Predict the structure.
Amino acid sequence: MRANFRMQRLFVSSDIVGGVGIEANADQFNYLANVLRLDDGADILVFNGRDGEWAASISFPSRKRILLKPSEQTRPQPAPADLHYLFAPLKVGRLDYLVQKAVEMGAGLLQPVMTQHVQGKITNIDKLRSNVVEAAEQCGILSIPDVAEPERLADLLERWPRDRHIIYCDEGDAGQNPLPILQTIKERKLALLVGPEGGFSEAERQLLRSLDFVTAIPLGPRILRADTAAVAAMAIIQAAIGDWN
């Protein structure tokens, strides 16, 4: 069932049960009442990442409170996205873009990775999680990706589960076509690793290439910024061996 983009969508943390009111928090109250200026009885869509999407109406039991009353499920909850996205943080504006596109492209986990040449940093993990929720609200996605705490690349690789294959974008790869390489990967659990603007260090490239659960791919003849490379790589992976296939 397709998403309805004509109606406002709102993420809620509570369980969603038909006929059982959900109290909007302060930020949601401000958004619904003061930004959107919705009236009593207005219809919206609510979701929580567990119970599917529901049609709900809003009511004002007092001047400072809004209740959301679910009436019927409009879309069932799909299986969660499974692609793990590992990324070196970028500067703030481009980091927001990167997070939004990762959600849209079907990432199930966002894992910030600290590399030797990383230029950005994660100063507020809660803001990153809020960006994930906002992206899901805007693009009609019902599953909310998890956001992990930042971790050093070497530490992450040391404890990495061997049944999830890592694909990383290697700007030093001599080839141009990633498709033949991707088609050799048989594992169904996948992760994408995109490095910083300055690229991986030579030591990091050697480490990655030494691991049998890691595969390097090129991204064609053009030089891409890290956020562009992430979107391109996720699209290629999803089309070739991911959930578009």
Observations:
- The chain has seven helices and twelve strands.
- The radius of gyration is 20 Å.
